[in-house]
Amino acid sequence: MSERAHESNLDSLVGALRAETDAEVRFDPGSRGAYSTDGSNYRQVPLGVVVPRTVEAGAHAVQVCARFDVPVLSRGGGTSLAGQTTNAAVVIDWSKYCHALVSVDPAARTCVVEPGIVLDELDRRLADHRLKFGPKPSTHSHCALGGMIGNNSCGASAQAYGKTVDNVRRLEVLTYDGLRMWVGPTSKAERARIAAEGGRRAEVYDGLDRIVDEYLADIRRGYPKIPRRVSGYNLDSLLPENGLDVAKALVGSEGTLVTVLHAELDLVPVPPYESLLVLGYDDICRAADDVPHLLEHCSPGQLEALDGRMAQLMREEHAYLDSLDALPEGDSWLLVQFTGDSRDDVDGQAHALLKAIGRSEKDASVAFSDDPRREQKMLKAREAGLGVTARPPDDRETWEGWEDSAVPPERLGDYLRDLKRLFEEFDYNHPSLYGHFGQGCVHTRIPFGMRTAQGVADFRRFLERAADLVASYGGSLSGEHGDGQARGELLTRMFGERLVAAFGEFKALFDPGNRMNPGKVVDPRPVDGQLRLGPAWRPAAEETHFGYPEDDHSFTQAVLRCVGIGNCRSHQGGVMCPSYRVTKEEEHSTRGRSRLLFEMLGGHADSTVTDGWRSTEVRDALDLCLACKGCKSDCPTGVDMATYKAEFLAHHYERRLRPAAHYSMGWLPLWSQLATHAPALANSALHAPLLGRAGKRLAGVDEARQAPVFAGRSFVRWWRARGDERPDPADPSTVVLWPDTFSNFFHPSVAMSAVRVLEDAGFRVAVPTRPVCCGLTWISTGQLDVAKRVLRRTFDVLRPYLDAGTPVVGLEPSCTAVFRADAPELLPDDQDAGRLAGQVRTFAEQLVRHAPEGWRPPELGRSATVQTHCHQHAVMKSDADHELMRRAHLDADVLDEGCCGLAGNFGFERGHHEVSLAVGELGVLPAVRAAAPDALLLADGFSCRTQIDQGGTGRHALHLAEALALGLEGPLPGERPERLADRPERPSRTARWATTALAATAAAAGGREAVRRLRRP
Question: Looking at the predicted structure, is the pLDDT value of residue 85 above 60?
């Protein structure tokens, strides 16, 4: 087909999809770029993306695609590691709308689901029945059941519950040519009925019978009898002794045969009690050797492993240190989890195992816990494997490709020794080895050279050798992640030519035209084809504002941090990613934005983004990024989308007119400085009925937002009025209190309270009285040249304190985070930026770690609902705050509800108000409404306090400094203690209307003067 004819066919397809399906139809460059890769080494730009609003719409979309003879790829969470969910096809994303739990039968322990439902969401909806779906991969917070069925997913819990295939009863499927049917085990009577009915379904079942008859002996002999055989099609499920189970045969087929519309699943009871036994070993091979011995004496719910290399990486990356602290002595560990109906039961299982293997709970190499929180800490270290090993500090990029091989558990130790020898032969030194050792499944990431021709050739040679090795052990190429493109070409090395030919016949039976996810499993594309990088990848080299010190000073390397894990698509917990949680859009996830930035680099001839920094697709994807920095801490590979957004905006608007909000809120420190000369007038103007609305339109502020109120007197003016003598910067008791824009001009009581508490603790407080700023608002709007100038002026003002090493105490978390992280990256060669990063502390850090011995905060003695600012969560952490609250006798409920949704200027910008409030309603605002009347509401971030004020909660939040200062004055009131805080009040109705009238009078007078001048001769 010529290019013109191809484009015409696509145009007709798009028109038909939009006219005939209840779906979002997206064939734009941005959508195609966001879906161009998954969690694998591969990249293929899709033809387009269809997001059906119903299962029926999705089914009809497949039929429309069939009419135009275009390939189809179903996609859930898009986390596949073998390239299953990237293809030059029409991608059907089921995750946004098709996520219903259709029905539950608690007595039968079954349920019916739509393909887009996320595993954790399913388990949450089943919680009232004390049931759950058994398999639980590490991506459980965001993987969809449709994808789990496509991949035959497993996870650690497969030790007890088996693979997904073992937990599927029936599937409703649709073939490319329109056959729709429920499939499952097929009795002889049902088989006869199908044959009698005739038609396409009978043709399929006749074909299945032929395949079984032709390859019966091959199937019985050729499939490894191991717990984790995931490679290949499940033809063994069609054997007579397995009941001709067509549903199980289709599980793990990676979207290459049918489209799954509904699934009937088996459920398992949620175990009431769990315990965890951790055993230390000298090395990972010896740990593997012990697995069969352990399994002789117990039936664990999980039997996981991690090695010393992973522990080393965690320490070097300062990640999961609390998990490591919970591990016993050793350089590798086996984690054995037990489940049962009572604490005595699970404790007894653990102690029985210890006795059987000749160990004791008192041994230094043994750790035991029946405390669920401690167990989760220890298991978290294992679950974090992919993220921790993806970007090791030694700068050797690691990749998938041989990341989930499986062998018989009794042969695991020897297999690992041979695998390590193969690593050494190819100079792939020190890959971490971990995984589901109880079932013989090994995870790793290997430093393949994916950028050069020689590196890619070695990659191919290694995979071929490794495939032969695992086959020699009677193992499987894949024990969890499937074949896709990474292993499809290697299947003959495991199954032989005849069984692979049977796979081809199976494929042809369901998809004779090879339109369902072509190039995967059957007639696969080469393992070294369509690589995300590869020797032909030539990204543009761009000069940048930020230094990217942890990414070899390269924006390209920073973008490559995203390896597609997809944690940014989680629905609960942590901060990342608020815009995805509201929109459920791939391009509004951290991963989707990273994909578009990758496309923007232009390394491939078919890159979907062709206009670089000027790209509207990238701009639109970044528009809903709240710059909350949640990804900087929550993303396993440390993607920092807030920084990438600032970088992009700086280039995108270079020498161009910016959005109005960049001039209004981006320059907020300057306007605030001016407003302090007449705060009452400024407030009246901002809140005047007509004038305020006009001002918001001019300023790019959403009309639904209330402008914050300027205080009658700024903190710095209050400080000057005190007339205190400036303390010596070299005095060990001297601290600089940073007068950020928000604590200075809007909520000065925060800074005043901090002075009160710091002085009570014995510190001598200094405050810069010349204008200073961290540059936050200019950074967040991408005005980075201005931000650099502002920071350098600030360094000049702080010079005596920087020279003396005086601590600088920050009150506003976002400003403190700038000094701790952004400023050193923006000015990497400025010594003062580095000095200030080392000297800046949070209010709580100063009091907990540096207050004179014997000082204690006031005892507040009540509960508190606490919202941690996202930048604090990402950069400074809040351990010191938790300790300070503990010492103040606060029973703190620290929310794990994500971002408040305001996020600095984001929630004020026109077009963001709806998303901003929707983010808040995901958790923070309901939690505030639910807080007890006598509880303190604490939020150190000005944005968080403003969102709580304006979010219809009926409550107001305090800074921790305010709560402590109030406590120093005496007991807090019984209800709504925040009412004691000194907050500027909104101007009266009279003042607001008077300002409007004054403005109208001035405008009329100006108009009359203009007319008079025009009439002059």
Answer: yes
Confidence of residue 1014 (pLDDT cuts 50, 70, 90): very low
Contact 530, 42 (CB under 8 A): yes
SS3 of 397-462: the string is CCECCCCCCECCHHHHHHHHHHHHHHHHHCCCCCCCCEEEHHHCEEECCECCCCCCHHHHHHHHHH
**Residue-wise DSSP of 55-110:** HHHHHHHHHHHHHTT--EEEESS---SSSTT--SSEEEE-TTT---EEEEETTTTE
Closest by CA to 739, choosing from 719, 764, 724, is 719
Residue 1011 has pLDDT above 50, yes or no: no
Structure tokens that stand for 920 in this block: 């808040």
Q: Name the 3-class secondary structure at 259.
A: strand
Please write down the HEC assignment for all residues of 1002-1015. Answer: HHHHHHHHHHHHHH
DSSP collapsed to 3 states, 265-292: EECEECCCEEEEEEEEECCHHHHHHHHH
Segment (H or E) for 501? helix 497-510
Lowest mean pLDDT among 112-116, 379-383, 627-631, 858-862: 379-383
The size of the chain, in residues, is 1017
Q: Which amino acid makes up residue 727?
A: P
Mean pLDDT, residues 932-941 taken together? 97
Distance (Å, whole) CA 602 – CA 538: 7
Looking at residue 840, its pLDDT comes to 98
CA distance 397 to 401: 13
Cα 343 from Cα 368, distance rounded (Å): 13
Q: Which residues contact 628 (CB under 8 A, 6 or more apart)?
A: 575, 576, 578, 642, 870, 871, 874, 899, 903
Which residue reads 């965001």 in tokens?
Answer: 142
Q: Which SS3 state, helix, strand or coil, does residue 667 take? A: coil
Tens digit of each residue's pLDDT (9 = 90 or more) over 466-491: 999 999 999 999 999 999 999 999 99
Spatial distance between the Cα atoms of 475 and 757, rounded to a whole number of angstroms: 65
